[in-house]
């Protein structure tokens, strides 16, 4: 299949596969025997590592956004590819941990547990899910077309939406981390 000619379809297929993997790990549907078990210290360090990775990804998105606004296509490309690599690192570590240990239980005060935390978590999750196909789509456009060709595609429009949603999702992920591991 020629990816260049079928970017929407390939984006859809990759998005379904990626989200299926995420849900399989989150629901602990991946047999643990298939995964090597890291020491507990490593498993417990993953949320802290992922918070740092998320903060770096937030910075990379902002750098990429500013670069493209200045017309610095090369800087934009570097920053967005860095964001994608950071996201891949985050996702691999998160999925590995959640597949083995399950989702972390919230242990904060009842008001926060009953209203604030679920709302923040739900918005974070929805934005992350919506971001996946958009990010894959703009990434595939970017790797299959030249810069002048990209300007004639939906890359600039979809990219702005994807970056904004990705930025908010990463930011809310840091808030979720703070609520789970720092504040409570």
Automatic annotation (TrEMBL):
Entry keyword set: Membrane, Transmembrane, Transmembrane helix
Transmembrane segments: 45-67, 79-96, 116-140, 161-183
InterPro entries found in the cross-reference section: DUF420
Keyword Transmembrane: yes
Sections of the chain in a coiled coil: none
Calcium among keywords: no
A Pfam cross-reference name: DUF420
PANTHER family: DUF420 DOMAIN-CONTAINING PROTEIN, HYPOTHETICAL MEMBRANE SPANNING PROTEIN
Protein name: DUF420 domain-containing protein
Lineage: Archaea, Methanobacteriati, Methanobacteriota, Stenosarchaea group, Halobacteria
């Amino acid at each position: 299949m020629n990816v260049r000619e079928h970017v929407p379809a390939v984006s859809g297929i990759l998005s379904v596969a990626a989200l299926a993997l995420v849900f399989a790990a989150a629901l602990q549907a991946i047999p643990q025997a298939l995964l090597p078990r890291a020491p507990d210290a490593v498993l417990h360090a993953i949320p802290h590592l992922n918070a740092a990775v998320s903060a770096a990804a937030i910075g990379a998105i902002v750098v990429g956004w500013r670069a493209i606004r200045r017309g610095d296509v090369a800087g934009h490309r570097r920053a967005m590819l860095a964001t994608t690599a950071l996201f891949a690192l985050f996702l691999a570590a998160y999925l590995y941990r959640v597949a083995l240990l399950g989702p972390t239980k919230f242990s904060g005060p009842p008001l926060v547990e009953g209203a604030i935390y679920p709302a923040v978590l739900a918005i974070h999750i929805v934005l992350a899910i919506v971001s996946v196909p958009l990010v894959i789509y703009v990434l595939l456009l970017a790797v299959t077309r030249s810069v002048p060709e990209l300007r004639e595609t939906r890359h600039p429009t979809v990219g702005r939406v994807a970056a904004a949603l990705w930025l908010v999702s990463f930011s809310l992920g840091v808030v979720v981390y703070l609520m789970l591991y720092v504040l409570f």
